[in-house]
Amino acid sequence: MKTTNAAVLAAGIFSQYAAGHSIFQQAGSGSTDFDTKCTRLPPNNNPVTSVSSGDIVCNVGGASASASGICEVNAGDQFDVEMHAQLNDRSCSNEAIGGNHYGPIMVYMSKVDDASSANGSGDWFKVDEFGYDASTKTWGTDYLNANCGKRAFKIPSKIPAGDYLVRAEAIALHTAGQTGGAQFYMSCYQVRINGGSDGQLPAGVKFPGAYSASDPGILIDIYSADLSTYQIPGPAVIDSSYF
Ligand SMILES: *[C@@H]1O[C@H](CO)[C@@H](O)[C@H](O)[C@H]1NC(C)=O
Ligand SMILES: [Cu+2]
C-alpha cells in the first residue's frame, strides 16, 4: 500500500493493523514452535522509515520492551523467523506481507549480556539475506509469501555460547524511488545459544549507522532499475567458516 499521512490516519480509525504492512512475530527451530514468546513485538504493523532513528534497531519501543521469554537453541541449529500482516494470524492463505511490498529480507545477530534487557546498542553481524533473484524474478518478500511467512537460517556453529538478540528485517521498496520512501519492518528476538565455540565474534555494524537513506538498495525505483544488480543493504553475510 502506498501510504500518505491521511491514509494512515484514515486506516487507523478502522484497524490498528494497516493493510499491506506487516510484523515479524513468531519464531521456531525446526519442529519446535516458539510462537511469540521471545519476540519484542512492535506496537503495530507500521514501518520504520528513518534509517537514523533509534527505531531502526528493534522497531518502536523495541530497545526496552522485553518479550516474555527467551528462545533457547543450540549453535548450528536451524532458526525460523516468521512474518505476518496481522498480529497472531498465521494463516498461510493470507499474504505474509502483501500490497506490492517488494524487497529484501535479512537477519542479523548481536551478542548481549542478557537478552531480556539488552537495548541493541552493540555490534550486529548478518547471518542471512535474500535480496532479488533475477532468474526467477523473486524478491525476499516473495519468498516469505510463498513460505507462509517463514524464513529459516542456520545459527552459526562457531560463535560463543550465550545471549543474543536476533533482528529479522524486511524492506519494502514499492515507494523507495524517493528519499525516505523505503519501509523497514523489523523485530528483535531474545535468544540464548547453547554449545557454540570459544571462537571470536564476527565483526559487526551498529544500528543506526549500518544504512544510509541513499544506499543503492534503499533509494531505488524498482520499477525502472536493473534489478539483476540489486545491492542488499548492510554488510555481507558473515564468512561461511562461522557456520
Ligand atoms: C544501551 O545499553 C548499553 C550497554 O548496557 C549502555 O551502555 C547504553 O547506555 C544503553 N543505551 C541507552 C540509550 O539506554
Ligand atoms: Cu505500505
UniProtKB/TrEMBL annotation:
MF terms in GO: hydrolase activity; metal ion binding; monooxygenase activity
Catalysis performed (reactions): [(1->4)-beta-D-glucosyl]n+m + reduced acceptor + O2 = 4-dehydro-beta-D-glucosyl-[(1->4)-beta-D-glucosyl]n-1 + [(1->4)-beta-D-glucosyl]m + acceptor + H2O
Keyword vocabulary terms for this entry: Carbohydrate metabolism, Cellulose degradation, Copper, Disulfide bond, Hydrolase, Metal-binding, Monooxygenase, Oxidoreductase, Polysaccharide degradation, Secreted, Signal
Pfam families: AA9
A GO BP entry: cellulose catabolic process
Segments forming domain Auxiliary Activity family 9 catalytic: 32-226
Origin: domain of life: Eukaryota
The keyword Iron appears for this protein: no
A GO cellular-component term linked to this record: extracellular region
Subcellular location: Secreted
Main location: secreted
Assigned EC number: 1.14.99.56
Cofactor(s) for this UniProt protein: Cu(2+)
Family: Belongs to the polysaccharide monooxygenase AA9 family.
PANTHER family: ENDOGLUCANASE II, PUTATIVE (AFU_ORTHOLOGUE AFUA_1G12560)-RELATED
Name of the protein this chain belongs to: lytic cellulose monooxygenase (C4-dehydrogenating)
